[in-house]
Specification:
Blueprint (H helix, E strand, L loop, with lengths): L25 E5 L26 H13 L4 E5 L9 H10 L3 E4 L9 H10 L3 E5 L5 H8 L4 H14 L4 E7 L7 H10 L4 E6 L14 H17 L3 E5 L4 H11 L15 E2 L2 E5 L4 E3 L9 E2 L5 H7 L1 H6 L7 H4 L4 H4 L4 H8 L16
Parallel strand pairs: 1-2, 1-9, 2-3, 3-4, 4-5, 5-6, 6-7, 8-9
Antiparallel strand pairs: 9-10, 10-11
Helix pairs in contact: 1-2, 2-3
Length: 362
Amino acid sequence: MIREKHHHAAMGRMPLSVDFDQAPLLLIWEVTRSCELACIHCRAEAIHQRHPLELTLAEGCQLIDQVADMGTPLIIFTGGDPLQRDDLESLIAHAKQRGLRAGTIPATTPRLTRERLIALKQAGVDQLALSIDGETAEKHDAFRRVPGSFAKAMQAAAWIRELEVPLQVNTVFGAWNIDAFEALADLVESLGIVFWEVFFLVPTGRGTDLQSCTAEQFEALFAKLHALSQRAPFVVKITEGQHYRRYLRQQAAAHPEVPAPKRMLPVAVNAGRGFCFVDHTGIVSPSGFLPIPCGQVRETGVAEIYRTHPVFKALRDPDRLTGKCGHCGHRQVCGGGSRARAYGLTGDIHAPEPFCAFVPPA
C-alpha cells in the first residue's frame, strides 16, 4: 500500500514545510479491511468481508474535511482493497474538492477493471499504486497467495499508463527476496512508473512469520537504492527504513559531489512524526505498522489526536530514544529508524532500530 510518504511531482508540488508538530505530511485512511488477496505479509490480516462499523461516506467526508483543515496536503485511501467500496470515487472527489492530493492502492483482483480505473481518473485521483513483490508470476503470486495476481498487476499497469495516470509501484523487501533486487528494479522500471516505494518488512500482522533483512542486508540494499536513485527517471522512496537518512548523510560527507536523491525532506517521516493512520472503523494510530490506538475520529478530531495524544508527542521527540539511537548524532534526521519495527520487536516505541548497522561513538 502507499503508506506513507513524500510523493514527487506526480502527486503535485506538495509543501515541504509542514510543521510535523501540527500536522502530518500525509494521512492514510484504511477505507476497508476487506480484500480478496491473502498476502503473507499483510499487517491487517485482511479477509474478504466488510466490517459493519466501517466509516460511512458521510463520516469519511467529515474525516477528509478534518485532514484538509489541519494542513495535511496528502491523503491516501488504502485497505484491504479500497475497490471494495463503491463510494471510493466519491471520497476521492471530495478530497480533491478540499484541495488535497489523493492516491489509492487497488488490489489486483477482478474488481480492478479498466472501467473502474477510468472512474478513479474522472474522480481526480492523482496517483495509483500497484504492489509488485516478485519479478516473476510464480514468486509474486506465491507472496500474494492468489494465482493470477501478477498478470493482473501487469494488465493494470498497462491500463494506468494508457489512461495517463501517474503510476507508483510498492515492493516489500525481506530476507526472502533481497537477492532479487536487481531483477525487481528492472521490472518496475520497465513499467513506466513515476515512483517506486520500497518497504522494509515490519513484524506485525501476518508479517510476524517472515524473516526481515539483517542490518548488513539493510546497508547493502541502501547502497543499491542510492545508486538507483542517481540514474532512475523515477523517485525512489524508502519506507520503514528511516535510517537510510543516516546512510545518506554518511555518503554525502564521503562523496559531496554526488547529488542527493530527488525530493527528499530534511527529516524522515516516521510513525506519528509526519504520518498518521486511521483504520476502517475510525481508530487513529501513529502508523498501520504501529497500531497503538490513540483515539476514535467519531469522538475526537483527528487533529487533536495527532497534536496532543501522549504517544504521538513522544514519537516526535527523538531525545526520548534509548540505546544507541539515544546518543546517535543522526537521530534528529532519521528519527531513530523505524519506530514501528522497534515497537514490533520490543514493545517499546523508544527502543533502538533493531537493524541499523551503525554504532555511534559513546
